[in-house]
Amino acid sequence: MCSGRVDLEFILRAFANGHDGVFIGGCRLNECNYVTQGNYDALANTLLCRKIMANIGINPERLKIEFMNSSDGIRLAEAVNAFTRKVKELGPIGTDEGNDKKTLKFKLEAARKLVPYIRLVERERLRAPVKSEEAYKKFYASDEVNRLFNELVIDKLAISQIISLLNEKPLSTGEISRALGLNQSEVSRHLNSSSRQGLVRYDESQKRFATA
What we know:
Layout: H1 8-16, E1 22-26, H2 38-56, E2 63-67, H3 73-90, H4 101-113, H5 115-124, H6 133-140, H7 143-168, H8 173-180, H9 184-196, E3 200-203, E4 208-211
Parallel strand pairs: 1-2
Antiparallel strand pairs: 3-4
Helix pairs in contact: 1-4, 2-6, 4-7, 7-9, 8-9
C-alpha cells in the first residue's frame, strides 16, 4: 500500500486508541512506485500531524516517518528498533506530556473532526512548492506556515474542543479554560466568535455557555 494512503485521520485515531507511537514507512522520495508521488503526501501529513500533536499536548517524537526501498531490510529493522526504544523512553502516551489519557483522547477526537477541513487547508494554503524532503521540512517549519497554521487550524481546533465540552454540559469561561489549558482571554475570543456563528449561546439562568 502506498504510504500516501496513511491518512491524517488514521494517525490521530491510532493515538486516540491509546497507541504510544506511530511509525510510517514509505518508499524513497522521488522513487515512488506510482505516478502520484504519494510518499510526499505522507510526509506532509506527518509534518502537519506533528504540529497538531504539539498543540494538544502530545510529544511529536511519538510520530516517525522513514523512507526506504524494498532492499533496505536492515535499515527498516534498525529504524523500527530505534523508534521502539524512543517510545519506551517516553513511556505510555500522556506520561511524558503530563496529561491524562482521558483529556488527550478528548482533544484527539476534536482534532479528528477537523480532518476534512485540514485536508482542504493543506491543499489550498499549506502545500510545499517544491518536492524534496528538505524543502518540505523547511516549508512546514517556516514562520509564515506557522502563522497560517495557527490562524487556519489551531483556532478551529480550540473551537472544536470547546464545542465538544459544551455538548456534555454548560460551562463557564473559567471551567473551559481549566479543562483545555487555555487562558481565559483565548476562550472568551473563541466563545464570542462561536456565538456570532450561532454555535454557542450564553445561558443567563445558569451563568454558563451552552451549545446553541
